[in-house]
Amino acid sequence: MKKAAPRHIGIIPDGNRRWASEHGLRKEDGYAYGLAPGLQLVHHAKKLGIEELTYYGFTVDNCKRPKVQFEAFRAACVEAVHLLTKEGADLLVLGNQTSECFPKELIPYTTRTTVNGGGIKLNFLVNYGWQWDLSHIRQDGRVHSADVSRIDLIIRWGGMRRLSGFLPIQSVYADFYVIDRYWPDYRNSDLRDALAWYARQDVTLGG
Reading across the β-sheet that carries 153-157, which strands appear in turn? Predict the structure, then answer.
């Protein structure tokens, strides 16, 4: 039995630094080249009827990187959210906003916000950490990411075969598709190929 099209897709846009190095740029320059692919994927996902997308911006652990790289990817995340506010979407920025690493410019979007008429559900993980997410259970029985639905398919660019702490609760039954090409080289065929692969997987959800 084949699966229906995934309702919710997780996006891990990796390989920006390696892409920059291979193109004769500084590692930190690679993050800005990931902005256009992000918008392109949103547009294509809308055409394909995807209901929800979650992008991995940066993690709590990424804050340990050299300062110049940290400032570059934080600025890229702010710009990405700014660009997404021009799309028709229901937008949520999710991450540890009490940390100095969290961009204060994004605080208005830490509750789900309808932008430009609403539409696709868009989640953007910024200064996200799985331990931070799960720590909220102790307070009221809910994770910080409670407003994010279960993920059907996770697509990771850059060739690495790991989740890197990506939404552990929502990813529990997700299928995982890896693309060796770096994120700045995204093509719409990447998404179509991932959906075609997903359609061939068995439906079990543990059953």
Answer: 113-115, 89-94, 120-128, 52-59, 8-12, 153-157, 175-179
Quote the percentage of the chain above a pLDDT of 90.
Answer: 90
| Residue 66 neighbours by CB under 8 Å, 6+ apart | none
CA 103 – CA 39 distance, rounded (Å) = 20
**pTM (2 d.p.):** 0.94
In DSSP notation, 77-145 reads HHHHHHHHTTSSEEEEEES-TTSTTS-GGGGGGSS-EEETT--EEEEEEEEE-HHHHHHTHHHHS--TT
Per residue in 174-187, pLDDT (tens digit) is: 999 999 999 999 99
**What's at 80, amino acid-wise?**
A
Residues 121, 55: Cα–Cα separation, whole Å: 11
AA identity, residue 26: R
Largest distance between two CA atoms of the chain? 49
